[in-house]
Every structure is written in structure tokens, then in C-alpha cells.
Amino acid sequence: MEYLKNLPWWVFLIAAVFVVYLAVCFIFIRKKSSKKKAFRAEHPEAASVYAEFSLKGVKTVQISILQVDGAPYGEYYPEGTKQAYLLLPGKHVLEVQAQTQRPGVLYRNVMETFGPATMEIEVAERGKYTVGFDT
Questions:
Q1: Partners of 94 in the beta sheet?
Q2: Which of 2, 49, 68, 101 is the most buried (most CB within 10 A)?
């Protein structure tokens, strides 16, 4: 314990900031999880629509669902490494955008954005769907 007394003050400051950061992340994850459980309890028939994120060779593809039925949609939650959008059964109009990124020759990364594109989907009760993009 004697070695702790010899450490400079900024080491303790960095450790304290790290602990506060972890606490805030934990609280945020718990809050998001409880919000998802409340939505699932209120709407047990909701379907999950996953936005694709994939690695194809050296190119990454990320799909973003910008709007659902003409308005920004906030009912999305992380499930593992994916974002799950919870939609009620029926027809919905999605506005999606695809973004690809690959290593470049003259630049560090080359990014291409496709869309936004509008697509109409119909989801069934408790279904699981993936929105993807073929490059």
C-alpha cells in the first residue's frame, strides 16, 4: 500500500474518470434494457427488424433505418451486436440508407452512401427480419 502514496495525483484522477464512465455506461444499458422490456410487455406481438452490419472482404456495409412510416423512429434497441427495431404487425414504409467503407489508395478510407431509399414491408407477429444491402 506504500506504493499508492508515491503515485502522482493525476493517476487517481484518470482512475476516477474511468470508474464514473463505467458507471454511466452501466446505467445507460440498464435503462435501455428496461425500456425494451416495457415495450415488449406492452406489445408482445411486436416484430424485430434488424439493420444489417456486415464485413464483405475488406468492405464493411452498414444499414441505417432513418424513418418508419414517415417519422424518425425511436424504438430500437441493441440485441447482441445488432440494432433491433421493434415494429407492430402490419405494413410499414421504411426509409433506409446504406453506407459502405473500404480501405483506399490515396485516402485512409473510401466511404460510399447509397440512398435514402424507400421500401414497404409487411411484418407478422413476433417475426424476425433483416434489412440488407447487396453490393
A1: 68, 119
A2: 49
